[in-house]
Batch of 3 targets.
Target 1
Amino acid sequence: MTTREAVLNFCLTLPDTYQDAPFHDENWQLVRCRKNKRAFAWTYVKDGKLCVNVKVSPEWRDFWRQTYAAVLPGYHQNKKHWNTIILDGTIPTEDIKRMLAESYDLVCLAKK
């Protein structure tokens, strides 16, 4: 998974989601949950690299960061709860989908 379109298309297959560009900047494309309007995938280009920020449980945060050099602490977000995935082709698609789905679960299915 190396394109914004692929990330957005996958995220939009998850129940009750929608795409949003809240900053009036086409560089930032988010996917949100309809029920609480919270974003679980933030796509953007930074330093010429396509990235997506995902929420992560603390138990998995360091695992992903240690497993892949292209997973970093969340850019512009709480580093304890968010990771940035650089979509450079070094991470298998199935692992990216797993991280996106976990972010969806944490943001959209969380009881509050």
Target 2
Amino acid sequence: MAPKSATKSKAKPSSRKSWKSRAVTRLIEPGSAVECMHCGDRVKFQARLRLQQVICNIYTKGRWDHVEHFHAECYDEADQPFGEPED
């Protein structure tokens, strides 16, 4: 039997990807009930206008923390706090 010090470690590998906050542009879906983090107004669906929103996944210390929503225009006004949004 191998000594305990020679047994396999349960530590997670250090090659684990460190996630960073990021932004994506999406159409505003019907039934959306979120507020814009910049202006505070509701990010709301309007069928004829097909407006877009920016959705940001926020990571803290490499772990997912929360989501923030912006009107597309507000995200630009806020100087794109989480980088250029992906499509």
Target 3
Amino acid sequence: MLVTGGLGGVMQAAARGAREAGGLTVGILPGPSHRDANAFVDVAIVTDLGHARNAIVVRSSHAVIALPGEFGTLSEVALALKMGIPVVGLGAWTHLEGVIPAEGPDAAVARAIERAEQVHAKPR
């Protein structure tokens, strides 16, 4: 399952790739309408919280893959690190302590899954 902010750009590209690979896509929207979701969102969650919805996106994730972005992306990276959720940086944010670097999309996904499994493994 892929969780994004549900809008366009990188979020739409990620949702498209996840859906094409057979995954479920969830968009946690900043505004008051499900119509704002991109065409590749299977489940649209309307929050009307603006940027505050970033905390919901992060808390709903087992790992975060961060691409180059602006302050919204930075807030998600910071929240994830504060919450102990693994962050993989793909072309950005790797100068921040705790962000795991990845050279390409496949490596980013592999590292995110690996770290999520380590952090969220159930004790026996």
